[in-house]
Amino acid sequence: MVVGLTGGIGSGKSTILECFKSFGVAVYIADDEAKALMNRSKVIKRKLIQLFGDDAYEDGELNRPYLASKIFNNKSLLSKMNAIVHPKVAAHFKHWLKKQKSAYVIKEVAIIFENNLQDQYDYIITVVADEDLRIERVMHRDHTSIEKVKAIIKNQWSDAEKIKQSDFVITNNDLQEAKKQAYKIHNVLLKKLKQ
Ligand code: ADP
């Protein structure tokens, strides 16, 4: 069983994923694997240089700020980049999944609904939090400005839209409360597996 964990920037996806990990669930962070593959895979490297030019890499390492500046607000470039990276991540995930022994696995993906990928999951958990908290958290985590965080949030689906299509929602305004919700969901998922 594959469970998708999603949520807007700063909602606390990575934090909640750690809770599930502590319950013994195998976790996969799609963004991290994508970044690793973008540095490791010669095929991806070659194609990204074709698409973005030599500046896509700096001293052999992915030049993330450069790529981010190129794809932000450029949907065509973003989808071209996704077409290079996503199939490789999907193949990597499939391979990883075969090796897992936990009752179910959770895959953290920032963008599920926006890319219409909900069918790839048996269940979807969306993490939500009040917008002012999310902005504060991201400014602190990424040392960035309020304007930049707001622009990213504006680019993503609203929580209300995501909630409509989710099986479970975790409200992460308070961490202890969110952990309790995560544990409840974990037990519901285990029950579903037994049915
Ligand atoms: P996301 O992965 O959704 O972008 P993170 O899990 O990285 O979000 O959380 C964003 C930041 O907020 C991190 O620095 C994290 O430690 C912090 N954080 C997450 N949840 C809470 C919470 N309930 N209370 C306080 N800080 C939190």
Structure notes:
The protein has 195 residues and is an alpha/beta fold. It has two domains: 1-25 and 104-190, P-loop containing nucleotide triphosphate hydrolases (Rossmann fold, 3-Layer(aba) Sandwich), CATH 3.40.50; 34-101, Rossmann fold (3-Layer(aba) Sandwich). The chain has nine helices and seven strands, in the order βαβααββααββαααβα. The strands form two sheets. A five-stranded parallel sheet has the order 2-5-1-6-7. α2 crosses α5 and α3 (42-52) runs antiparallel to α5 (75-98). The chain is globular. The model has no long low-confidence stretch (mean pLDDT 95). The structure holds adenosine-5'-diphosphate. Residues 7, 9-15, 137, 141, 172, 174-175, 178 line the site of adenosine-5'-diphosphate. Adenosine-5'-diphosphate binds at residues 7, 9-15, 137, 141, 172, 174-175, 178.
How do the strands and helices of this protein lay out in sequence?
Layout: E1 2-7, H1 13-22, E2 26-29, H2 30-40, H3 42-52, E3 57-58, E4 61-62, H4 64-71, H5 75-98, E5 105-108, E6 123-128, H6 131-142, H7 146-155, H8 159-164, E7 168-171, H9 175-194
Parallel strand pairs: 1-5, 1-6, 2-5, 6-7
Antiparallel strand pairs: 3-4
The structure holds adenosine-5'-diphosphate.
Adenosine-5'-diphosphate (ADP) is lined by residues 7, 9-15, 137, 141, 172, 174-175, 178.
Question: How would a crystallographer describe the biggest sheet?
Answer: 5 strands, parallel
What share of residues is helical? 55-70%
Strand order of the largest sheet: 2-5-1-6-7
CATH superfamily annotation of the largest domain: P-loop containing nucleotide triphosphate hydrolases
What ligand molecules are bound, each kind once? adenosine-5'-diphosphate
Distance between the termini: 13 Å
What's the overall average pLDDT, rounded? 95
The count of DSSP E runs of length 2 or more, i.e. the number of strands, is 7
Contiguous runs where pLDDT drops below 50 for at least 5 residues = none
